[in-house]
Design brief:
- By secondary structure, this protein is mainly α.
- It is built from three helices and no strands.
- The longest helix has about 40 residues.
- It is elongated.
- It starts with 12 loop residues before the first helix and ends in a 35-residue tail after the last helix.
Length: about 160
């Protein structure tokens, strides 16, 4: 019950990052599949609304029924979503992100070094002639004590 040994089977940071990345990818693919199902149901619903019910049969932009344009537009958005999940995220994954971060940090360090060199060149530090010499005040300050009988009048020494 009160043992000194605790359970130390925690995941290290690398395993945790891998798990989080895998969870994120699974969620992206799940949302893509949901988008596909909603797209199919929506396309069938648009066809049914136009053909069976006859809603806006006279609306034919560029010679095609309106539902064809709506489905084509939705197909375009679905293809962008699919491209993003399956192609772009797989190429620009965790390793790509890490490389980009390292590159940006290196670039910032280089800029800081350049700025530091420029500042040192334009505003050099003043040279110290005698570092060991202690600063001496040419006029030392005298502390005067007040007369206890008359606090406004200083004592003369």
């Amino acid at each position: 019950m009160f043992s000194k040994k605790k359970n130390t089977s925690k995941l290290d940071t690398e395993q945790r990052e891998m798990y989080e990345y895998a969870r994120k990818r699974a969620l992206q693919k799940r949302r893509l599949f949901q988008h596909f199902v909603v797209f199919l149901v929506g396309a069938v619903l648009l066809i049914v609304i136009n053909v069976v019910i006859g809603y806006r049969e006279d609306l034919k932009p560029l010679g095609y029924d309106w539902f064809v344009w709506a489905i084509l537009l939705w197909t375009f958005f679905f293809l962008i979503h699919m491209l993003n999940v399956l192609v772009i995220d797989s190429f620009m994954g965790k390793e790509w992100e890490q490389k980009q971060l390292e590159r940006l940090v290196r670039k910032q360090r280089d800029r800081i070094e350049e700025m530091q060199k420029k500042v040192e060149k334009e505003h050099p530090e003043p040279k110290k002639k005698e570092e060991s010499k202690i600063y001496e005040d040419p006029a030392p300050i005298r502390i005067q004590e007040n007369d206890p009988r008359n606090p406004d009048k200083p004592l003369n020494h």
